[in-house]
Each structure stands twice: as C-alpha cells, then as structure tokens.
Amino acid sequence: MSDSDATVSKLYGVDTYFFPKRVTFLINEDGVVFDIIKNMSLDDYANRIIQVFKNNNLIINSNDQN
Predict the structure, then answer these.
(1) pLDDT tens digits for range 3-34
(2) 60 within domain boundaries
(3) Is 2 a member of any domain?
C-alpha cells in the first residue's frame, strides 16, 4: 500500500522521520495483526511472507505442495 502522507504509518506506530520505512503487518482473517516484519530483504520477500502464514496455519488453500 502506498502511504504518501504517512497517515496509516503513524496509526501503526511506524517511524516515518526523514525516510519512509518498509514494515509489513501480517493480519489474520479476524483482522488481528499477528506479526510485524521490519527490515526484510526484498530478494525472497513473497516466499518468506507465505512461509510465516504457513507457520501460523493461516494458509487454508495453497497450490504449493511443500
């Protein structure tokens, strides 16, 4: 999500001083934040996020056979 005016960042307590920070909030189906990830490399970003959801048993239907 783009947050150019830092409205959402401030609501979630993300420091936006000088440079915007990349912070990922993982939210379950009940709308509860269950993990916050900071400083993650973008090289394997998607796979790592999927793995966190799997580790928390939050992926119900996946084509991944691993």
Answers:
(1) 888 888 888 888 777 776 778 889 888 999 99
(2) no
(3) no
Structural domain includes residue 44: yes
* Domain that residue 34 falls in: 7-55
In a domain, 13, yes or no: yes
**Which of 47, 4, 8 has the alpha carbon at shortest distance from 25?**
8
Predicted TM-score (pTM) of this structure: 0.66
Question: pLDDT class for 64, splitting at 50, 70, 90?
Answer: low
HSE-CB for 22 with a 13 A CA cutoff = 5
Name 59's Cβ contacts closer than 8 Å, sequence gap at least 6.
50, 53
